[in-house]
Specification:
Blueprint lengths: L1 E5 L5 H6 L2 E5 H7 L4 H9 L8 H12 L4 E7 L5 H10 L3 E6 L6 H15 L3 H26 L6 H9 L8 H15 L9 E7 L7 H6 L3 E6 H6 L10 H6 L7 H14 L4 E7 L7 H8 L4 E6 L7 H26 L2
Helix pairs in contact: 2-4, 3-4, 7-8, 7-9
Length: 339
Protein backbone atom coordinates (compact mmCIF):
# COMPACT_ATOMS: atom_id res chain seq x y z
CA UNK A 1 0.00 0.00 0.00
CA UNK A 2 1.23 3.48 -0.87
CA UNK A 3 1.93 5.89 1.97
CA UNK A 4 0.12 9.20 2.14
CA UNK A 5 1.01 11.92 4.66
CA UNK A 6 -1.54 13.79 6.77
CA UNK A 7 -1.19 17.32 8.12
CA UNK A 8 -3.99 16.59 10.62
CA UNK A 9 -6.85 14.16 11.15
CA UNK A 10 -8.92 13.72 7.98
CA UNK A 11 -11.48 11.11 6.82
CA UNK A 12 -8.88 8.32 6.62
CA UNK A 13 -11.69 5.87 5.91
CA UNK A 14 -11.58 7.23 2.35
CA UNK A 15 -7.81 6.83 2.07
CA UNK A 16 -7.85 3.26 3.41
CA UNK A 17 -10.69 2.33 1.07
CA UNK A 18 -8.53 3.66 -1.78
CA UNK A 19 -5.64 1.41 -0.77
CA UNK A 20 -3.40 3.97 0.96
CA UNK A 21 -1.53 3.74 4.25
CA UNK A 22 -2.09 7.04 6.12
CA UNK A 23 0.90 8.53 7.96
CA UNK A 24 0.32 11.40 10.40
CA UNK A 25 3.33 13.66 9.85
CA UNK A 26 2.75 15.33 13.23
CA UNK A 27 3.36 12.02 15.00
CA UNK A 28 6.52 11.27 13.01
CA UNK A 29 7.85 14.69 13.93
CA UNK A 30 7.05 14.82 17.64
CA UNK A 31 8.10 11.27 18.60
CA UNK A 32 11.45 11.48 16.81
CA UNK A 33 14.49 11.35 19.12
CA UNK A 34 16.10 13.94 16.87
CA UNK A 35 12.99 16.02 16.20
CA UNK A 36 15.02 19.22 15.68
CA UNK A 37 16.38 17.87 12.39
CA UNK A 38 12.91 18.35 10.88
CA UNK A 39 12.80 21.95 12.05
CA UNK A 40 16.30 22.53 10.67
CA UNK A 41 15.27 21.19 7.25
CA UNK A 42 12.42 23.70 7.11
CA UNK A 43 14.46 26.68 8.32
CA UNK A 44 17.30 25.90 5.90
CA UNK A 45 14.72 25.95 3.11
CA UNK A 46 13.59 29.43 4.18
CA UNK A 47 10.78 28.90 6.69
CA UNK A 48 10.92 31.83 9.14
CA UNK A 49 11.77 31.32 12.80
CA UNK A 50 8.57 33.18 13.72
CA UNK A 51 6.37 30.40 12.35
CA UNK A 52 4.61 27.58 14.18
CA UNK A 53 7.04 24.75 14.93
CA UNK A 54 4.45 22.15 13.95
CA UNK A 55 4.32 23.47 10.37
CA UNK A 56 8.10 23.30 10.09
CA UNK A 57 8.13 19.84 11.66
CA UNK A 58 5.50 18.54 9.24
CA UNK A 59 7.47 19.91 6.28
CA UNK A 60 10.74 18.36 7.46
CA UNK A 61 9.08 15.03 8.28
CA UNK A 62 7.51 14.87 4.84
CA UNK A 63 10.77 15.48 2.97
CA UNK A 64 13.05 13.45 5.25
CA UNK A 65 10.79 10.39 5.16
CA UNK A 66 10.33 10.53 1.41
CA UNK A 67 6.55 11.00 1.52
CA UNK A 68 5.43 11.67 -2.06
CA UNK A 69 1.72 12.34 -1.49
CA UNK A 70 -0.10 14.20 1.28
CA UNK A 71 -3.55 15.43 2.23
CA UNK A 72 -3.45 19.10 3.14
CA UNK A 73 -6.32 20.49 5.21
CA UNK A 74 -7.01 23.99 3.91
CA UNK A 75 -9.90 24.86 6.22
CA UNK A 76 -10.51 23.77 9.79
CA UNK A 77 -6.90 23.43 10.92
CA UNK A 78 -3.73 25.55 10.91
CA UNK A 79 -4.02 28.80 8.98
CA UNK A 80 -0.49 28.27 7.64
CA UNK A 81 -1.25 24.96 5.94
CA UNK A 82 -2.14 26.62 2.64
CA UNK A 83 1.33 28.15 2.40
CA UNK A 84 2.90 24.86 3.53
CA UNK A 85 1.32 22.85 0.73
CA UNK A 86 2.36 25.42 -1.86
CA UNK A 87 5.99 24.87 -0.84
CA UNK A 88 5.53 21.08 -0.80
CA UNK A 89 4.08 21.22 -4.31
CA UNK A 90 7.18 23.06 -5.46
CA UNK A 91 9.23 20.16 -4.05
CA UNK A 92 7.34 17.66 -6.20
CA UNK A 93 4.95 16.43 -3.51
CA UNK A 94 1.46 15.59 -4.78
CA UNK A 95 -1.10 17.35 -2.58
CA UNK A 96 -4.76 16.39 -2.22
CA UNK A 97 -6.82 19.19 -0.63
CA UNK A 98 -9.51 18.70 2.00
CA UNK A 99 -11.52 21.21 3.99
CA UNK A 100 -13.76 21.06 7.04
CA UNK A 101 -16.39 23.67 6.06
CA UNK A 102 -16.41 26.68 8.35
CA UNK A 103 -20.21 26.81 8.03
CA UNK A 104 -20.44 23.53 9.97
CA UNK A 105 -23.58 22.63 8.05
CA UNK A 106 -24.29 18.95 7.55
CA UNK A 107 -24.92 19.38 3.83
CA UNK A 108 -21.61 21.20 3.35
CA UNK A 109 -19.67 18.54 5.25
CA UNK A 110 -21.37 15.82 3.23
CA UNK A 111 -20.41 17.58 0.01
CA UNK A 112 -16.78 17.99 1.14
CA UNK A 113 -16.44 14.29 1.96
CA UNK A 114 -18.15 13.29 -1.29
CA UNK A 115 -15.61 15.37 -3.22
CA UNK A 116 -12.85 13.66 -1.24
CA UNK A 117 -14.27 10.25 -2.19
CA UNK A 118 -14.46 11.30 -5.85
CA UNK A 119 -10.78 12.31 -5.82
CA UNK A 120 -9.80 8.82 -4.62
CA UNK A 121 -12.46 7.05 -6.67
CA UNK A 122 -14.16 5.18 -3.85
CA UNK A 123 -17.86 4.82 -3.02
CA UNK A 124 -19.78 5.17 0.20
CA UNK A 125 -20.22 1.41 0.66
CA UNK A 126 -16.46 0.83 0.70
CA UNK A 127 -15.92 3.79 3.02
CA UNK A 128 -18.58 2.63 5.47
CA UNK A 129 -17.03 -0.83 5.58
CA UNK A 130 -13.69 0.70 6.58
CA UNK A 131 -15.41 3.01 9.08
CA UNK A 132 -16.99 0.01 10.78
CA UNK A 133 -13.57 -1.63 11.13
CA UNK A 134 -11.92 1.54 12.47
CA UNK A 135 -14.69 2.11 14.97
CA UNK A 136 -13.92 -1.30 16.48
CA UNK A 137 -10.40 -0.06 17.24
CA UNK A 138 -11.67 3.34 18.34
CA UNK A 139 -13.85 1.49 20.82
CA UNK A 140 -10.69 0.17 22.47
CA UNK A 141 -9.33 3.72 22.68
CA UNK A 142 -12.60 4.71 24.33
CA UNK A 143 -12.08 1.92 26.87
CA UNK A 144 -8.62 3.29 27.63
CA UNK A 145 -10.16 6.73 28.17
CA UNK A 146 -12.69 5.24 30.60
CA UNK A 147 -9.91 3.41 32.43
CA UNK A 148 -8.32 6.83 32.89
CA UNK A 149 -11.14 8.97 34.25
CA UNK A 150 -13.47 6.36 35.73
CA UNK A 151 -11.06 3.81 37.19
CA UNK A 152 -7.74 5.69 37.54
CA UNK A 153 -5.77 2.85 35.95
CA UNK A 154 -4.33 4.61 32.91
CA UNK A 155 -2.20 7.72 33.39
CA UNK A 156 -2.55 10.96 31.47
CA UNK A 157 0.36 10.33 29.13
CA UNK A 158 -0.86 6.88 28.07
CA UNK A 159 -4.33 8.36 27.59
CA UNK A 160 -2.78 11.03 25.35
CA UNK A 161 -0.60 8.59 23.42
CA UNK A 162 -3.20 5.98 22.49
CA UNK A 163 -5.88 8.47 21.56
CA UNK A 164 -3.65 10.77 19.51
CA UNK A 165 -2.39 7.70 17.63
CA UNK A 166 -5.92 7.15 16.31
CA UNK A 167 -5.21 9.86 13.74
CA UNK A 168 -3.45 7.21 11.61
CA UNK A 169 -3.62 4.04 13.78
CA UNK A 170 0.19 4.02 13.71
CA UNK A 171 -0.10 3.12 10.00
CA UNK A 172 -0.95 -0.46 11.06
CA UNK A 173 -4.54 -1.05 12.13
CA UNK A 174 -4.15 -4.67 13.24
CA UNK A 175 -0.91 -4.01 15.09
CA UNK A 176 -2.37 -0.95 16.83
CA UNK A 177 -5.48 -2.90 17.79
CA UNK A 178 -3.38 -5.65 19.37
CA UNK A 179 -1.35 -3.05 21.28
CA UNK A 180 -4.52 -1.49 22.73
CA UNK A 181 -5.86 -4.90 23.74
CA UNK A 182 -2.62 -5.70 25.60
CA UNK A 183 -2.72 -2.39 27.47
CA UNK A 184 -6.32 -2.98 28.54
CA UNK A 185 -5.58 -6.54 29.63
CA UNK A 186 -2.46 -5.56 31.59
CA UNK A 187 -4.13 -2.81 33.63
CA UNK A 188 -6.96 -5.12 34.61
CA UNK A 189 -4.78 -6.46 37.42
CA UNK A 190 -3.16 -3.19 38.53
CA UNK A 191 -4.22 -1.06 41.48
CA UNK A 192 -5.75 2.35 40.76
CA UNK A 193 -3.60 5.43 41.36
CA UNK A 194 -5.45 8.29 43.01
CA UNK A 195 -4.42 11.94 42.87
CA UNK A 196 -6.18 14.80 44.62
CA UNK A 197 -6.34 17.14 41.61
CA UNK A 198 -8.14 16.03 38.44
CA UNK A 199 -6.99 18.01 35.42
CA UNK A 200 -8.20 18.53 31.91
CA UNK A 201 -5.77 19.18 29.05
CA UNK A 202 -7.25 21.21 26.21
CA UNK A 203 -5.77 22.58 23.01
CA UNK A 204 -3.50 20.99 20.44
CA UNK A 205 -1.46 17.95 21.54
CA UNK A 206 1.72 19.18 23.23
CA UNK A 207 5.29 19.37 22.05
CA UNK A 208 6.18 19.08 25.75
CA UNK A 209 4.85 15.62 26.61
CA UNK A 210 6.73 15.66 29.93
CA UNK A 211 3.87 17.80 31.24
CA UNK A 212 1.99 14.59 32.13
CA UNK A 213 4.73 13.23 34.37
CA UNK A 214 5.46 16.68 35.82
CA UNK A 215 1.97 17.31 37.22
CA UNK A 216 1.97 13.90 38.90
CA UNK A 217 4.75 15.16 41.18
CA UNK A 218 2.19 17.56 42.71
CA UNK A 219 -0.63 15.15 43.53
CA UNK A 220 -2.38 15.83 40.22
CA UNK A 221 -3.19 13.92 37.05
CA UNK A 222 -4.78 14.53 33.66
CA UNK A 223 -8.02 12.63 33.21
CA UNK A 224 -9.09 14.41 30.02
CA UNK A 225 -7.22 15.14 26.79
CA UNK A 226 -9.56 17.17 24.64
CA UNK A 227 -8.22 17.11 21.08
CA UNK A 228 -6.56 13.70 21.42
CA UNK A 229 -9.95 12.28 22.43
CA UNK A 230 -11.55 13.89 19.39
CA UNK A 231 -8.94 12.23 17.15
CA UNK A 232 -10.29 8.91 18.47
CA UNK A 233 -13.90 9.87 17.57
CA UNK A 234 -15.48 8.89 20.90
CA UNK A 235 -19.00 9.35 19.55
CA UNK A 236 -18.28 7.75 16.16
CA UNK A 237 -20.10 4.54 17.00
CA UNK A 238 -23.32 6.51 17.39
CA UNK A 239 -23.01 8.29 14.02
CA UNK A 240 -25.27 6.97 11.26
CA UNK A 241 -22.58 7.42 8.61
CA UNK A 242 -19.23 9.03 7.88
CA UNK A 243 -20.89 12.38 7.18
CA UNK A 244 -22.48 12.52 10.62
CA UNK A 245 -19.26 11.33 12.26
CA UNK A 246 -17.20 14.19 10.87
CA UNK A 247 -19.99 16.67 11.54
CA UNK A 248 -19.77 15.76 15.24
CA UNK A 249 -15.96 16.12 15.31
CA UNK A 250 -15.29 19.25 17.39
CA UNK A 251 -11.66 20.10 16.53
CA UNK A 252 -12.01 21.81 13.12
CA UNK A 253 -15.09 23.92 13.81
CA UNK A 254 -15.74 27.10 15.76
CA UNK A 255 -14.82 27.43 19.42
CA UNK A 256 -18.46 27.57 20.58
CA UNK A 257 -19.07 24.07 19.25
CA UNK A 258 -16.00 22.88 21.16
CA UNK A 259 -17.25 24.55 24.33
CA UNK A 260 -20.47 22.48 24.35
CA UNK A 261 -18.45 19.27 24.58
CA UNK A 262 -15.93 20.78 27.01
CA UNK A 263 -18.69 21.67 29.46
CA UNK A 264 -20.00 18.10 29.34
CA UNK A 265 -16.58 16.64 30.03
CA UNK A 266 -15.75 19.07 32.85
CA UNK A 267 -18.86 17.92 34.69
CA UNK A 268 -18.66 14.21 33.85
CA UNK A 269 -14.96 13.90 34.76
CA UNK A 270 -15.25 16.11 37.84
CA UNK A 271 -12.34 18.30 36.81
CA UNK A 272 -10.71 20.67 39.30
CA UNK A 273 -8.85 22.72 36.70
CA UNK A 274 -7.75 22.93 33.08
CA UNK A 275 -4.40 23.53 31.44
CA UNK A 276 -4.82 25.05 28.00
CA UNK A 277 -1.80 24.44 25.79
CA UNK A 278 -1.23 26.67 22.77
CA UNK A 279 1.61 26.76 20.28
CA UNK A 280 3.67 29.91 19.70
CA UNK A 281 2.60 31.88 16.61
CA UNK A 282 -0.69 29.93 16.35
CA UNK A 283 -4.00 31.75 15.87
CA UNK A 284 -5.70 29.28 18.24
CA UNK A 285 -4.02 31.03 21.17
CA UNK A 286 -6.58 33.82 20.78
CA UNK A 287 -9.37 31.35 21.52
CA UNK A 288 -8.19 31.31 25.13
CA UNK A 289 -10.03 34.61 25.63
CA UNK A 290 -13.37 32.97 24.80
CA UNK A 291 -12.62 29.72 26.60
CA UNK A 292 -11.74 31.51 29.83
CA UNK A 293 -14.95 33.52 29.73
CA UNK A 294 -17.22 30.58 28.89
CA UNK A 295 -15.80 27.81 31.07
CA UNK A 296 -16.52 28.13 34.78
CA UNK A 297 -13.35 26.42 35.98
CA UNK A 298 -9.82 27.54 36.95
CA UNK A 299 -7.67 27.58 33.81
CA UNK A 300 -3.99 28.08 33.07
CA UNK A 301 -2.74 28.92 29.57
CA UNK A 302 0.77 27.74 28.73
CA UNK A 303 2.62 28.15 25.44
CA UNK A 304 5.02 25.82 23.68
CA UNK A 305 7.49 26.53 20.91
CA UNK A 306 10.52 24.46 19.84
CA UNK A 307 11.37 22.68 23.10
CA UNK A 308 10.02 19.17 23.63
CA UNK A 309 10.19 19.58 27.41
CA UNK A 310 8.84 22.15 29.84
CA UNK A 311 11.07 25.13 30.55
CA UNK A 312 11.72 26.34 34.10
CA UNK A 313 9.29 29.28 33.91
CA UNK A 314 6.42 27.10 32.70
CA UNK A 315 7.12 24.56 35.43
CA UNK A 316 6.87 27.30 38.05
CA UNK A 317 3.58 28.53 36.62
CA UNK A 318 2.11 25.03 36.58
CA UNK A 319 3.30 24.36 40.14
CA UNK A 320 1.71 27.59 41.36
CA UNK A 321 -1.53 26.73 39.56
CA UNK A 322 -1.66 23.28 41.15
CA UNK A 323 -0.96 24.77 44.59
CA UNK A 324 -3.91 27.09 44.07
CA UNK A 325 -6.16 24.17 43.10
CA UNK A 326 -5.13 22.26 46.23
CA UNK A 327 -5.91 25.31 48.34
CA UNK A 328 -9.33 25.55 46.70
CA UNK A 329 -10.01 21.89 47.43
CA UNK A 330 -9.12 22.36 51.10
CA UNK A 331 -11.27 25.49 51.28
CA UNK A 332 -14.27 23.73 49.73
CA UNK A 333 -13.82 20.78 52.10
CA UNK A 334 -13.69 23.08 55.14
CA UNK A 335 -16.77 24.98 53.97
CA UNK A 336 -18.74 21.73 53.64
CA UNK A 337 -17.69 20.56 57.11
CA UNK A 338 -18.97 23.80 58.72
CA UNK A 339 -22.37 23.66 57.03
Amino acid sequence: MKKIGLTTTVPIEVLLAAGYTPVDLNNIFVISKDYTKYIDIAEKDGFPRSLCTWIKGIYGACLHNNIKEIVGVLEGDCSNTKALIEVLKSKGIKVYPFSFPHSHKKEDIKEAIKRFMDIFQVDIEDVEMVRKRLNEVRGLARTIDELTYKYNKINGFENHLYQVSCSDFNSNIDGFENELKKVILNVKYTNPIYKKIRLGYIGVPPMTTDIYEFVENFNACFVYNEVQREFAFPRGDKALDIYEQYYDYTYPYDVNFRILELKKQIEERKLDGIIHYTQAFCYRAVEHIVLKEELDIPMLNIEGDKLNELDARTKLRIEAFLDMLLDLRHLQKNNKSTC
